[in-house]
Design brief:
single chain; mainly beta; five-stranded antiparallel β-sheet; 18 strands; about 40% strand
Length: about 280
């Protein structure tokens, strides 16, 4: 059976003025066999009847199945980061490497997408037997990754939940999450990030953090506070009684991390702490 949305090897069955018709090996020469058109401009110059050709099968602008030797950036059941070319009344259209752009229906968008931005999407067949993109990629993700605790990984944000945290596709393939506690700054859907593997759950999903190990992170936090002090004439109106949300917004760290960092700086006699804030010595 010729499969929509997949790369496959098909064979030249017969020619027409506008291309060649391809079929599976078992259907070669059969009048009742299933065939599909490969347009003439994509037919190899030396191709002859019976030759195998690797193609991708999708639907043209008139919803007819058609083969192409151009390979898309994503195939059925896979994930890819694709750019939004346009947003119309029926949804967004994405660049997936073929002449006909890929539709991302409004119903499959988890946020309002913007032209020129890139998002993680999966490819599926809709109720009308057309290939479409979806941003609802949770079920596409795997849980058998090769990672270890403290590995540094790359990923892209694909979802957010105010109760749990931020969902990340690690290497665009594996299921990961940054909890509310570990999400030290605002992350947007479609943002590519670097994170650390905190632990691996029994179901194989990854718990991630944007922060380094404690002793390394304290060095980073201390340096960040010193930089901000230097940028603000040696004084900042924050101290150990400041609101946690103010500290997170200003420094991108939790209140406990802030207190540890200023404690180190105070112990090293680099800053003074008062009820008005912190100040360079």
């Amino acid at each position: 059976m010729i499969e929509l949305g997949r790369k496959q090897i098909l064979y030249i069955d017969h020619r027409a003025d506008f291309g060649v018709y391809l079929c599976e090996a078992k259907d070669l020469g059969r009048r009742d066999g299933e065939c599909i058109l490969l347009p003439r401009k994509q037919v190899p110059s030396e191709a002859k009847k019976g030759d195998p050709i690797e193609v991708f099968v999708y639907k043209d602008s008139q919803d007819r199945p058609i083969a192409t030797t151009n390979m898309p950036k994503v195939t059925l059941g896979e994930l890819a980061v694709l750019e939004v070319l346009d947003v119309t009344k029926i949804g967004a259209f994405l660049d997936w490497g073929l002449e006909k752009d890929l539709l991302l229906p409004f119903s499959e968008q988890v946020v309002k997408v913007k032209k020129g931005e890139k998002y993680l999407v999966g490819l599926y067949v809709d109720k009308s037997e057309r290939l479409c993109a979806t941003m609802k990629v949770y079920d596409f993700l795997r849980t058998d990754g090769p990672y270890k605790v403290n590995d540094t990984v790359q990923g892209i944000v694909f979802g957010k939940n105010p109760e749990y945290g931020v969902f990340v596709a690690v290497d665009y393939l594996y299921n990961g999450m940054i909890s509310k506690k570990e999400a030290v700054r605002e992350l947007r859907i479609g943002e590519e990030i670097e994170a650390r593997v905190l632990n691996i759950r029994e179901d194989g999903k990854l718990n991630l953090s944007l922060r380094e190990k404690g002793y390394i992170q304290m060095d980073i936090d201390s340096a960040r506070i010193m930089d901000k002090l230097s940028e603000n004439e040696g004084f900042l109106p924050y101290h150990d009684k400041s609101a946690p949300e103010d500290i997170r917004r200003e420094f991108g760290m939790s209140k406990n991390e802030f207190k540890r960092a200023i404690g180190r700086l105070y112990k090293n006699r680099q800053i003074k702490i008062s009820d008005k804030g912190i100040e360079l010595i």
